[in-house]
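forwarding from the other thread:

> can someone predict this with flavin-adenine dinucleotide?

sure thing
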Amino acid sequence: MTNTVVIGAGVAGLAVTRCLRDNGVEAIALDENAEVGHSWASRYDNLRLNSVRWLSHMPGQPMPKRYGRWVGRDDLVEYVNSYAAPIRDQVRTGVKVLRVERGSPWRVVTDQGDFEAAHVVVATGLYGKPVIPDWPGRDDYRGELLHAADYRRTEPFEGKRVLVVGPGVSGVDIAVDLLSRRTGELVVAVRTPPNFLPRELYNIPLQGLSVTNRHAPTAVQDLGGRLIQWLSVGDLGDTPLGRPTEGMFSRLKRTGVNPAVDDGVFVPAVRAGRVGVVDEVVELYDRGVVTKSGRQVEADAVIAATGYRTGLADVLGQLGVLDDRGVPPQYGKENQHWADQGLHFVGFASPLTGHLREIGLIARKTAKRIKRAPVPGASRVVSTP
Ligand SMILES: Cc1cc2nc3c(=O)[nH]c(=O)nc-3n(C[C@H](O)[C@H](O)[C@H](O)COP(=O)(O)OP(=O)(O)OC[C@H]3O[C@@H](n4cnc5c(N)ncnc54)[C@H](O)[C@@H]3O)c2cc1C
């Protein structure tokens, strides 16, 4: 008997659907895209995971060793597809969920008809909706303005002056990609001095250390992070990026922002002057950006690595389950409160121990919770337009 509707067939949705199946619970996963794992397939060509292969796989299926230590995009897409294979008949693609309505059973309203289910698992991801700030002058800018989510490869930027806004994980990844494979000037706009971690130090993947220290107090984790940062990139106070005032774990806890990853390319390039640094972008004009200090910076292209929203306001907004960043509760009493009523969330926490690793853990836990819960009724399609 099917009793669960999973919204989203990215890694989180697939993981929970497979875990449910392994627990003998039938589930249907709905995804608005035509293919599973669409988000990875649409990411940039040279993307490599920052988390290590053996801490990034989904429950029940390790990634093949031939993918190497730092898995590339195409291998990841292959992995996601092979992970989806055993549950293909449970995944319905091209179905957009418009709204989830509270009740017993829950009603999932989609553009292909409605579903009723005892349990709903929301697995639509933290990065559903790329956000570009509503800078004044956007319409006057004559160069190319794009979000980091739409960046694919270096070629279109060959020989151009590119400004990357935001030295977070995506901004630094893209800057490194641009630095390694093209000519032209590169400038990064910085609002808050960033923290950095390397993928590995002395050949040891740092994700393993984060996992080992995951229960330490935040202040202790911050101290460890500062030490590793100092060992890997030195004192950032002597660079135009500036020395971060907040520890990387504290910042992640407060804002959800992860430290950027630098394997010895980005910060040295800043020190060598191969990457220019300017302050916060506040406005655009026909030839570039204006920064908070009033400086005009010309740019042929502006890549806004300015973050994402979940895009869940329409789907869940009326339930009062989202925080002010639009994120549902992934842990704690509030999460338990919703789970008790049959509404579950997978994929909405991105700790330094690894987002994918956390997805796997929460998918397993959610499936067990649903299996143990009483089953008021099977899910069914109640109307088809
Ligand atoms: C550039 C980048 C690099 C990353 N690198 C790493 C890394 O190295 N290591 C790591 O651990 N994590 C990494 N992450 C974070 C995380 O692992 C990924 O974002 C991962 O894809 C999250 O999986 P997900 O299933 O939660 O979300 P997604 O992959 O975004 O999947 C969500 C799915 O839900 C569907 N959906 C959304 N809304 C609806 C709707 N209303 N109706 C129907 N379907 C809907 C979407 O079509 C999508 O297929 C990275 C993230 C980004 C953006």
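The chain has a mean pLDDT of 94. thats all i got for now
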